[in-house]
Structure formats: structure tokens, C-alpha cells
Amino acid sequence: MGARWCLGPSPKSLDRPTIEVVKQLFLDQTGERYVEASVRSLPIPEWGGNLVLLDENNLLRGLLWANKFSDQRVRVVAFAIDSDFKGLGLGSQAWNHLLAAAREDGHTEVQLEVRGDNHHAIEFYRRRGLDIIDTLEGYYKAGVGYVMRGNI
Ligand SMILES: CC(C)(COP(=O)(O)OP(=O)(O)OC[C@H]1O[C@@H](n2cnc3c(N)ncnc32)[C@H](O)[C@@H]1OP(=O)(O)O)[C@@H](O)C(=O)NCCC(=O)NCCS
Description:
The longest helix is centred in the first third of the chain and has 15 residues, at about 15-30. It contains four helices and seven strands. The radius of gyration is 15 Å and the shape is globular. A seven-stranded mixed sheet has the order 1-2-3-4-5-7-6, sandwiched between helices. It has a domain at about 5-105: Gcn5-related N-acetyltransferase (GNAT) (Aminopeptidase, 3-Layer(aba) Sandwich), CATH 3.40.630. The chain is α+β, with helices and mostly antiparallel strands. It has helices spanning about 15-30, 35-40, 90-105, 120-125; strands at about 5, 50-55, 60-70, 75-80, 110-115, 130-140, 145-150. The structure holds coenzyme A.
């Protein structure tokens, strides 16, 4: 099964069926429930930090959505890959694409929020040089969250 990362459209211009796929992906992979309007309103421009993973039928199987939070910093708003495609190095590929695009635009930091119980993701980010810099109470229904940040 082949899948490849492509530049994604802005979330507000996604078609209805794709929004449904994104909602299901978020629910399955992060436990977070989104409605159509909340997916569409995510502030993600079209750039090298907006990546969608497409399978051989061009169905969406993952995404990495980041924005340009400030001149200095990019913020990862969502990062999820369908279970069939996890652990194949595709997450690392997307991460490297994001960092290359961010550096090209002159950014020097990456930041994101992650659930405290998501050990797999926390370790993934730690191995890529991010550290926990803050704890979030009441951000996730399931418990505490962490803000992670790293230099790029
Ligand atoms: C976090 C997430 C996006 C990472 O994606 P992934 O595709 O599983 O990540 P990768 O396969 O690139 O990396 C995971 C590990 O798989 C291993 N791996 C297995 N097969 C591999 C291969 N063929 N090539 C490279 N790495 C491979 C690597 O050891 C890698 O570990 P590393 O960090 O030491 O490089 C994904 O696991 C996911 O969707 N998780 C659920 C949602 C989530 O938690 N999102 C983050 C919220 S903030």
C-alpha cells in the first residue's frame, strides 16, 4: 500500500466527504470530536506546513496541519495518521517536510499542544528535540495537556 504526502488545501475549502474523513481521523487517533464548522475554521494556510497523506485511491489517510504563529514560531495544530499507515516512517517524513518549509520561511521554533497521556506522541516529539515547557489544565477533557517547544 503506497501513500504520499501532498500539499493540502486550506481546511475551509475541503469538500464535505473529506471533512467527514478528517473528523473520523481526529476521533480515532486523538479522541477529539470536531464538528464540520470547527474543522473548516482551523487557521491553516496553504504552505509546506499543510500536508495531507493520500493513499493510492487519493483518499485522505493523514494530515499535518501547522501555521505560522509568528515570525519566529510555527505551531502544529493537528497531526494524525490512520492506523494502517502509522509506524512506517510517514510521520517522520511529514515532520521533516514541515521543518524544511518552516526554516525556508525563516522560522526558528516549533510549538504544539499534546495530551499528557499521549506517550507515543510525546516521545516522538522529544526525539525530535522538543521539550515540555508548560502544563495545560482544562485544555483537554481527558486530563492535562503539555505545551512542547523546540528549536528548528
Ligand atoms: C504521532 C504520529 C503522527 C506519528 O506518525 P508515525 O507515522 O507513527 O511516525 P513514524 O512511523 O515516522 O515514527 C514512529 C516510529 O516508527 C518507527 N518506524 C517504524 N518503521 C519505520 C520505517 N520504515 N521508517 C522509519 N521509521 C520507522 C521509527 O522508529 C519511529 O521512531 P523514531 O521517532 O525513533 O524515528 C502518529 O503516530 C499518530 O497519528 N498518532 C496518533 C495521533 C497523535 O497522537 N497525534 C499527535 C497529537 S499532538
